[in-house]
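Hey, can you fold this one?
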Amino acid sequence: MGKTISALRKLEGSLAGLYSTLFKLSYFSINAKTAFQKIAMDSMEHEELIRLLESKLDEYEGLVDDEMITLCNSLSEEAMKLSESVKKMTSTEIFGKLRELEKGEELAYQIYQKYMKEAANKKDNVLVLILKGIVEDEELHDKLLSALVN
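Sure. Predicted structure:
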């Protein structure tokens, strides 16, 4: 497994864990809980799709620079730490941290866009469609988080 694929799987998995944890907290509104559950489910699905497509996506290793991979791993670590500490935080503190983590959704979006463009160049239409679905999910996550934290 390439560095990029490993970092993406880790990021999606850590985000899924974080948002599942947030969903379980009782003091959030139904809108927030629903958004958290949607992001958690999508992130789990993205992690699984990346696992299934690993050998194909490994062909594109090198599209993503080391700086993006390092940032991806760093955001994964932040999401895991936040997941462990959210039960001791207020909703205001959590939303502040989520503003910082919005970068994770943006970064994943950028990486998937690179893969989608390369798949289109190689005329791999099925991969393009799968990646397009993931990109659309990432855009929705970004909008949901923006709506919640503002």
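Helices lie at 3-24, 30-52, 54-58, 66-85, 91-121, 125-149. Let me know if you want another pass with a different chain boundary.
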